[in-house]
């Protein structure tokens, strides 16, 4: 049985050498790489890196988008017994300093000139970097940096070495073992320096295979690899499971062409965080707003049918003859064309993870015939802890424990996990490792939740984020900020939300509008605006957002547990929350504590009952320059509803 990723690669190359392994869109044309191509590329690259001095057990960073040659770089490092460390390609150079120094990195394989420039910029702070190897040579012809070379040169030197030493590659591959470290993934560092999560070949392959078995994945699947390779979710779906199952991974030309490439590929197995599903839905709603009255009316009618019967139909339940007939007509006229427009006509299994998805958003996709399910996991668990079985996908759970996983709930409500996919530890951080791993092998997830009567896991929020309202008529009521935020983010006009309320007498939120959706809405109403800041503070936009907030409050009033979490006051921020400004992680999770400190004056104004507040904020631009954005923000009250079952 194959024990390492390199052995899995060679197995595919020997058994099905001419089968497609990866496709890459370049200059508008899809280029195919077979399993034999990928194996040869990985072996030649491994030999080239070996000649350059990379050794077993050493770390090597890989920075770039999903590209076959960068995937081969991961495999090449693992062939040598070295440890690849993927880093986020959209991170600013300063964010690379700690991971590179922490892992004592000498080698960096990067995609293009942008990433080369970042490595050169931090060389003074990372003196160990001796080799910077780039894939795309555009713009680099006149660079004279020491240790800078191309992947082409690495491959050429490696090919010569392999030709001169025919048994070298197999000897290196055979030296690998399942318990060797396979990769290291750095956490997002929401509360300090990021931590290097160490995983072995066994932990990653075991979980990848468990997920594949759960959903009966095989070599005929098509996957679109468009998320950052540094995110372990992308790595599992487009690398670990790719090598376990032997399916085809497709790499889009760029982030800008992703939606088009999604339609061209028509993946059968699709994975995206909630933010992507929100964006796709927003684009649909924008187009429907621009449609004629007849089309809009037809869309609304059949979407009502879908919401009423689609989820039950997707779960394999009988919905009756008349409802089936209506749904079939809706599928011809609306759902089928809609799935095709979204690039999901062939999707057999779709997963979302990374953060909780809003129940309305989840229901929308299942109602139109997309088998969207939720999974639960983290970087430390190699992703797969819980998965939703077909016909058991529910908006309020994240599924049942998959093969090999045990779950128990601590007295404080925290979920503990035991799994073959657990991290080996945090690199050079035994204290942090001891905090999350018990002596008897249980991992502390820091998530609050419980197993329901049917064995499904329900996540409430992060343990540290679940709070209580203090004072007022809702004194003692539970407050789950992520739940409130997700309900608001279902609306196409709202992109991001930050909710506060723990140990306070009421809940207040700060909102980012979706610039495209609200801009389209404004243009159709002949409402002029000069940019995001101007649009965000329009009285008409506040009325639009207030309507969304009050609809959420009406929904919350019907929830016995969270009726006290209704939103009392809100504001629309003058700028979009940005990872470059430290407000989001690189996986686009809100850094709630950081934002509270940064915008303390706004939080105080919300809770102080002020009608407006001036704010000036320093921002970073993509070219590294800094600037500032200022505005006087309006603060608005929202209507609250009496909890259902309680006297008004």
CATH domain topology of the domain at 5-192: Rossmann fold
For the biggest sheet, the summary is: 5 strands, parallel
Give the end-to-end Cα distance, rounded to a whole number of Å: 66 Å
Strand order of the largest sheet: 4-3-5-6-7
Please bin the fraction of helical residues: 25-40%
- The shape, in one word, is globular
Q: Which stretches are poorly predicted, pLDDT < 50 over at least 5 residues?
A: none
Structural class: alpha/beta
CATH superfamily membership of the domain at 5-192: ANL, N-terminal domain
- The fraction of residues assigned to DSSP E strands is 15-25%
CATH class of the domain at 5-192: Alpha Beta
Structure report:
It contains 21 helices and 28 strands. The protein is globular and about 80 Å long. Helix content is 39%, strand content 21%. Helix 14 links the parallel strand 13 and strand 14 (372-376). By secondary structure, the protein is an alpha/beta fold. Strands 4-3-5-6-7 form a five-stranded parallel β-sheet, sandwiched between helices. Strands 12-13-14-15-16 form a five-stranded mixed β-sheet, with helices on both faces. A five-stranded mixed β-sheet has the order 24-25-26-28-27, with helices on both faces. The termini are far apart. The longest helix has 22 residues, at 293-314. Among the domains are: 5-192, ANL, N-terminal domain (Rossmann fold); 467-637, 2-Layer Sandwich (GMP Synthetase, Chain A, domain 3), CATH 3.30.300.30. Helix 1 (5-15) packs across helix 2, helix 8 crosses helix 9 (232-245) and helix 11 packs parallel to helix 17 (515-524).
């Amino acid at each position: 049985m194959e024990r390492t990723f390199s052995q899995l690669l060679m197995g595919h190359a020997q058994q099905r050498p001419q089968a497609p392994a990866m496709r890459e869109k370049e200059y508008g044309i899809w280029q195919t790489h077979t399993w034999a191509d990928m194996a040869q590329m990985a072996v030649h690259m491994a030999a080239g890196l070996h000649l350059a001095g990379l050794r077993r057990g050493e770390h090597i960073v890989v920075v770039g988008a999903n590209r076959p040659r960068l995937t081969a770089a991961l495999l090449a490092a693992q062939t040598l017994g070295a440890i690849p460390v993927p880093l986020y390609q959209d991170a600013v150079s300063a964010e690379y300093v700690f991971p590179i120094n922490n892992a004592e990195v000498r080698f960096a394989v990067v995609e293009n000139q942008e990433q080369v420039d970042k490595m050169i910029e931090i060389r003074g702070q990372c003196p160990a970097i001796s080799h910077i190897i780039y894939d795309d040579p555009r713009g680099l012809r006149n660079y004279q940096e020491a240790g800078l070379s191309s992947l082409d040169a690495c491959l050429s030197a490696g090919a010569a070495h392999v030709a001169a030493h025919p048994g070298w590659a197999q000897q290196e591959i055979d030296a690998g073992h399942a318990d060797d470290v396979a990769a290291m993934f750095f956490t997002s560092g929401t509360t300090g320096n990021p931590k290097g999560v160490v995983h072995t070949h066994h932990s990653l392959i075991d979980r990848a295979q468990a997920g594949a078995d759960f959903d009966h994945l095989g070599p005929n699947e098509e996957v679109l690899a468009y998320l950052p390779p540094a995110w372990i979710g992308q790595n599992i779906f487009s690398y670990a499971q790719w090598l376990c199952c032997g399916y085809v991974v497709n790499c889009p030309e760029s982030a800008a062409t992703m939606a088009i490439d999604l339609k061209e590929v028509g993946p059968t197995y699709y994975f995206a965080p909630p933010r992507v599903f929100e964006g796709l839905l927003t684009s649909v709603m924008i187009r429907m707003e621009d449609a004629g009255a007849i089309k809009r009316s037809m869309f609304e009618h059949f979407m009502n049918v879908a919401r009423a019967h689609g989820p039950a139909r997707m779960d394999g339940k009988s919905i009756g003859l008349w409802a089936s007939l209506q749904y079939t007509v809706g599928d011809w006229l609306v759902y089928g064309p809609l799935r095709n427009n979204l690039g999901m006509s062939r999707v057999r299994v779709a997963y979302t993870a990374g953060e909780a998805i809003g129940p309305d958003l989840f229901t929308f996709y299942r109602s139109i015939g997309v088998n969207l399910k939720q999974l639960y996991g983290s970087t430390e668990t190699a992703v797969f802890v819980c998965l939703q079985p077909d016909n058991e996908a529910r908006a309020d759970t994240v599924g049942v424990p998959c093969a090999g996983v045990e779950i128990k709930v601590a007295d404080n409500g925290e979920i503990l996990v035991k799994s073959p996919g657990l991290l080996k530890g945090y690199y050079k951080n035994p204290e942090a490792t001891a905090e999350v791993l018990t002596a008897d092998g249980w991992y502390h997830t820091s998530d609050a939740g419980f197993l329901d009567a049917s064995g499904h896991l329900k996540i409430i929020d992060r343990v540290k984020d679940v709070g209580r309202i203090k004072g007022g008529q809702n004194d003692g009521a539970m407050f789950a900020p992520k739940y409130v935020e997700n309900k608001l983010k279902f609306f196409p006009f709202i992109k991001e939300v930050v909710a506060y309320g723990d140990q306070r007498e009421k809940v207040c939120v700060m909102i980012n509008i979706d610039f495209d959706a609200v801009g389209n809405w404004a243009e159709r109403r002949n409402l002029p605006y000069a940019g995001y800041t101007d649009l965000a503070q329009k009285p008409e936009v506040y009325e639009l957002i207030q309507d969304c907030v009050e609809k959420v409050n009406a929904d919350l009033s019907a929830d016995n547990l969270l009726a006290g979490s209704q939103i009392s006051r809100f504001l629309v921020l003058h700028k979009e929350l940005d990872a470059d400004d430290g407000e989001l992680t690189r996986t686009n999770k809100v850094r709630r504590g950081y934002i509270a400190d940064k915008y303390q004056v706004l939080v105080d104004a919300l809770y102080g009952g002020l009608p407006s507040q001036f704010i000036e904020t320093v921002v970073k631009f993509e070219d590294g320059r800094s600037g500032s954005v200022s505005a006087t923000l309006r603060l608005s009250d929202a209507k609250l509803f009496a909890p259902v079952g309680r006297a008004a």
